[in-house]
Design brief:
Elements: H1 37-68, H2 74-101, H3 105-126, H4 129-144, H5 155-170, H6 177-207, E1 209-212, H7 223-235, E2 253-256, H8 259-268, H9 272-283, H10 300-316, H11 322-327, H12 335-366, H13 377-392, H14 396-399, H15 405-420, E3 422-426, E4 439-445, E5 456-465, E6 476-481, E7 484-485, E8 491-492, E9 495-502, H16 515-532, H17 554-560, H18 566-572, H19 584-592, H20 598-615, H21 627-638, H22 654-657, H23 667-685, H24 690-707, H25 713-721, H26 728-733
Helix pairs in contact: 1-2, 1-3, 1-4, 2-3, 3-6, 4-5, 6-10, 8-13, 12-13, 12-20, 15-18, 16-17, 17-23, 20-21, 23-24, 24-25
Length: 739
Amino acid sequence: MTTAPTSTSATGSAAPAAGIVPLLIGAGLPPFEAITPEQVRAHIPGLLAELEQDLTALERRLEADLAGGGLLSWQAVLDPLQRLEERLRWSWGVVSHLTGVCNSPELREAHAGQQAAVVAFGNRVGQSRVLYRALETLDHQHHSAAPGDAGLLDGAQQRILAAELRAMQLRGVGLEGEAQAAFNAASQELAELSTRFGNQVLDATNGWTLSLTSVAEIEGLPASLLEQLAQAARGAGLTAADGGEATAEAGPWLLGLDMPRYIPFLKYSRRRDLRERLYKAHVGRASGQGEGASAELNNWPLIERILSLRGDQARRLGYANWAEVSLAAKMADSEAAVEALLEELRAAALPVAERELEQLRACAARHGAPEAADLQPWDVSFWAEVLRQESFELDSEALRPYFPLPQVLEGLFALCGRLFDIQIRAADGEAPVWHPDVRFFRVLEGPGAGERAGQPIAAFYLDPYSRPGSKRGGAWMDECLGRSRAADGTPVLPVAYLICNQSPPVGDTPSLMTFEEVETLFHEFGHGLQHMLTTVERPQAAGINNVEWDAVELPSQFLENWCYDRATLLGMARHWQSGEPLPEAEFAKLLAARTFLGGAATLRQVHFALVDLRLHSQWHPGCGQSPEQLRREIAATTTVLAPIDEDAFLCSFGHIFAGGYAAGYYSYKWAEVLSADAFSAFEEVGLENEPRIRETGRRFRDTVLSLGGSLDPKAVFEAFRGRQPTSEALIRHSGLVAV
């Protein structure tokens, strides 16, 4: 997952509050730990005031140029606009980043206090008629220029200009009077609702815990989970019956809704009643209902308001619905094209998922489980793990010791060196961080670069562990610094944020990763590579900037495939204590189990994507049904176990209500078509044919990872693959080939 770009600087004209040193500096690596809520309150207003002055000055210059009737230049219009927007992106981006990884009531309040002004300034830029006329003039100059004329733009400039014009149209530049005022008010409210939605999911996740005190309650749980639960109990101040500290052996153990505790408990607990309680609490998060729920943390009203406002915004802009607005800037050219892909996948996945469910029921019956006749959602993970072990003799928990984070990083970095000819070096202590767990790395040119070998290319932060109290769930990549040039012409190297929420270390034991956590790390690093290995000099199209949202998951999903590559996996999977490599037999089991429950996994993504798309195309306040009723109607053909009454999944669907995926969740499957087809290029040359693998990897770097948003993604894919993509590889990789 990536996050929508946000953030910038304060060399402000407004004087800071007494005793506050200006740290929202707008350039370089942020001094994270020194940026306080007081900093935010003191410096964002001054920054915005200065940016307002700079924007007004730019508009005056452009008005004079337009009145003069001469040629406008890129340097006179787009370069100063980019520098102005980057200053805000940097400062507000740091604040937004910290709310995601170091959330606190004080920071939350400071963020909320400045958000309206930041949104207002964004609207001010996006609705500047002078800027829009200047951009239109540049566009006209290009289309009327002859070869060699000064007004002619290169391909990257044309795409950037087209994107800027479209973005301003979608920001309401064509609106006037009351319509524009209503549009701006709705933009403000949507930003506030999005932040509130995410905060309430975080609070609801943190607000539910269950203390386990008897051995009977932990039946079936692996040692690694017991260590985590005991660590959580210690963190919460819980003590054993004798007053001693909580231990993995004697408890107490504190259960929670964060993924590192939630997922393995559902997978291994033999206590069906506790699985049910945990599952219901999780799917009911932020709905204001259920065991231990807070009535204040209720996202249902926010969902209807967000959807209503988005629909209103779409109609103000001349679109039928928000899905049309979303697709205006994506690779898919219509809602019908998205529906067609999702239906192709749904039709292939549904019968497979139905067979998989019957296999789970049969497995439960063989073990004499009473739930065999009435399998419920909280039973699926448990019996899936039993069946996985029976079918492949593959114990997910037994694999953890082979995937300590340091070794996984070594393997990931070695793969990137092999494919893309880069070197990655630890640089801990060389950059400010926001938490002691955060690491810093530098990316250098590899030995194949000749004289440039060892030359710095980029850097990245890695924040790997779950911190339920202050860090939002999920995993994402975001931009700290983008590739650009400073005002004095010196290059600014890209720096990425890579955020995961995997199991933390316990005592002297390092973070022992599940295979799914390994895949997640590879996924986010794929995003990071596109950000870091770009060669585009224009920042508006460098890295993931200006890449259509439904193509942006290509590098991330592509890199996940390498978790199943023999050389990659066996090169990094070694027992953290003995150093013994993962046995070949275990690798074979992993490979065989790759498509295990592949029908259910595909159907789940199709369900989410269709719900998202239709909420933003079909739902409106007068449609006669609630968003949840529409979701359940869709579930009739996209699930094999109907959502239970307590299921309020929409209330925690942060991707579309608190992130950048509104009417765009389908992008995961759309891009997966591209990524699977891209990986098949490596399969075709032979995964053990080292010279051809390196050659193909270099071509992937020089196209997909290098060109960023400077070229249409269809053209980028064709430059790598030599043709347009097909869904054949995805259907094959997902195990959905017709039996």
